[in-house]
Amino acid sequence: MVILKEGTNMSHYPRWYYDEFKQIGVDYTDLEEVQAYDLRMQKLRDIESEFNNTQELLKIKNSDLILEIGTGTGELALKFSAHCRKVVAIDISKKMIDFAKMKAERQKKTNIEFYNAGFLTYENYDEPFDVIVTQLALHHLPDYWKMIALRRIYAMLKEGGKFYLRDVVFPSLTSDYDSYFNKIITDLKNSAGDKLAEETEIHIREEFSTLDWIMEGLLKNTGFCIEVVKFDGFIACYLCKK
Asked: Residue 14 has what DSSP assignment?
């Protein structure tokens, strides 16, 4: 069955603990924005290709237990569910999780659990995961909290388990960031339209993407062995092993 569990009450945490449910950037607590996002991603993303590229790296097996952090409207979790034992899909946006659950029910998926939680608040009371995946979500946390998130991910993985991270990561060797960001935004306007270009401006201005050497340092200091690194524009992919 598809299970939907409510989010964590932040009052259970110390007052200094980061509130990952606080909305930064685009507001995905609004259902209309979530629906618009889903339609936009259907047009812009090649989900089949994304899954195939991820599967090529992860080599997911029928026996695998997978956690996806930041599932959004659930597209990748739905793909994973056909190739593994179970998917646990979490997101800090309750509206996103509700929407993803409806899609899973329409497709009669029976091996997905949905939780309204994130990097810092999800608690795993079951066996450790074989694979943990997160795409375009870790940048919502400042660097110290990225480290805490990665430590929690490491602890939730089986020994030898795999962690796949795909996110916006800025290159440290760029000498002119004004030109670098302006080109990204201009290219996005031309290829994907004004809306995505505007969201990218918000991302650069208000969210917490970090530099490549910082991201790689965080992964290594957590204990991960980085096996594969790929860069596509300003998106980086890391395949790591515990």
From this structure: -
